Write the structure tokens for this entry.
Amino acid sequence: MKLPELPREPIRNEDQPGYEKQIWSPSWKCFCCQDTGRIHPHLVKLIIRDYDFDCDRIPICQNSKCKFGVNWLHLGSANIDMRLNAAICQELDRFSREDWKRTTQQQFEKYRKRIESSFTQIAQSHSFALSHRTSNHEREVQQRKAEIEAITPEQWEAMNKAYLVGSNKDE
Ligand SMILES: [Zn+2]
């Protein structure tokens, strides 16, 4: 049997392409566990400094407004950590919200600056092209003028004669 090839099925939004759009407003309701039921590791580390994501019991979200913590209860007390109680989870949620607000503002600032600088670049290249074209044009005009001025009266006469001869020929 030929094995099929499947597209990715990301669990988290930040793993999806075009995540930058998401960064403005996270889609989760609980900022303590990001709706996973498992308290976000960087928040856990605020309480358990040397917390090891791979080895330690899973700190379960007990935020009273969050219903996702129960999804982990079946793992049993040997695997889950219930010490981060409702009050702590609520505080972590508040902390994370502020953190996100800051991050969002920073991202927005970065984004705004990037847009601004690309606009400036475009404007500069446009005005460069414009001034370049104008100076080229100006140079051409001056050159023609100089060429015309350099023609001596004798040359004019000769040119006129040639023209007249030419037009006579045509008749
Ligand atoms: Zn939660």
The beta strands are 58-59, 80-81. The mean pLDDT is 82. Helices lie at 19-22, 41-47, 86-150, 153-170.
